[in-house]
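Deliverable D2.4 — example input (structure tokens):
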């Protein structure tokens, strides 16, 4: 939650420069409070596991969040019961006229396919376009980060020569950014993917800021200047055993799979993994939810207009910086 300090206190300017919320007295008095409305587009085949992972992170914030679940209608999920989907999920058409404070789009095991070859690609693009107008801030995870950056900015993906699999150190690029405020200079993040961003394409878009990156992983956290879009190329939401379960699943199937890097003690898969990314995962989601809570309009109907205003401010700032 933001802190409230007296106007004119010297510490207030320092905190402002460090991007720590300090409310003005007038704003604090007039602040309206309501639960945040969030929707999760769950593209993972392991629906229940992914739901649990994301809700666990969201629950770490003291702010009340109401969550809905969305699924695509152009793909049939085979790893979860139809009853579960009917009971807890709605298709995109039921969301088209609604506004939300936040949207999380999960990864999907389709990195080996060209984007246009994914059977729900057209529907995915429609959802991303909808979020640009109706969602105050969207967090894209793993494949969704690559897919949304491709759709919105034309940033290409490249197939990796070998699977990026393990827990990798990421270097913080801006210690005073709101989203990563409180992060250590180096943080760990799980990755499990066969594709990566074309970094050269990313560098052509100054409206996108890289918040953390790694030698092996490339950009790990990316965001627009106004945090309307956030991209996480790894899996902060993973639990302690998620990579282990993935390793043993493929191992027992006789598939070629390497031991995940920097994960099992002594690189021995018989040892229990060390949960080295949990604190930063919690912090990222707390910071994000706190940011959305402070900046989103009280009236959900005002979100499209507020998004347009923020985009206009960002464009004006970008033009000013060029000169």
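Example output (designed residues):
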């Amino acid at each position: 939650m933001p802190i409230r300090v007296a106007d004119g206190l010297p510490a207030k300017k320092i905190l402002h420069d460090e991007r720590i919320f300090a409310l003005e007295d007038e704003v604090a008095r007039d602040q309206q409070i309501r639960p945040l409305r969030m929707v999760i587009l769950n593209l993972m085949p392991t629906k229940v596991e992914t739901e649990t992972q994301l809700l666990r992170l969201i629950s770490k914030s003291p702010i009340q969040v109401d969550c809905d679940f969305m699924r695509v209608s152009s793909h049939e999920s085979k790893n979860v019961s139809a009853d579960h989907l009917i009971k807890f999920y709605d298709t995109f058409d039921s969301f088209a006229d609604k506004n939300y404070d936040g949207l999380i789009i999960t990864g999907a095991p389709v990195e080996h396919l060209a984007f246009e070859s994914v059977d729900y690609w057209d529907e995915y693009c429609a959802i991303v376009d909808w979020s640009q107008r109706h969602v105050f801030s969207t967090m894209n995870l793993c494949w969704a980060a690559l897919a949304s950056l491709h759709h919105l900015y034309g940033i290409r993906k490249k197939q990796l020569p070998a699977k990026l699999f393990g827990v990798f150190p990421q270097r913080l690029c801006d210690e005073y950014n709101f989203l990563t405020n409180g992060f250590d200079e180096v943080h760990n993040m799980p990755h499990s993917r066969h594709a990566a961003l074309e970094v050269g394409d990313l560098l052509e878009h100054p409206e996108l800021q890289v918040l953390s990156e790694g030698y092996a992983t490339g950009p790990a956290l990316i965001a627009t200047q106004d945090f309307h879009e956030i991209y996480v190329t790894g899996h902060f939401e993973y639990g302690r055993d998620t990579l282990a379960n993935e390793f043993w699943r493929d191992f027992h199937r006789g598939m070629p799979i390497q031991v995940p890097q920097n994960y099992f003690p002594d690189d021995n898969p018989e040892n229990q993994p060390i949960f080295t990314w949990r604190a930063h995962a919690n912090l990222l989601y707390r910071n994000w939810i706190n940011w959305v809570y402070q900046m989103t309009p009280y009236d959900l109907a005002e979100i499209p207009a507020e998004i347009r205003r923020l985009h206009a401010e960002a464009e004006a700032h970008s033009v000013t910086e060029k000169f």
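The chain is about 35% helix and 25% strand.
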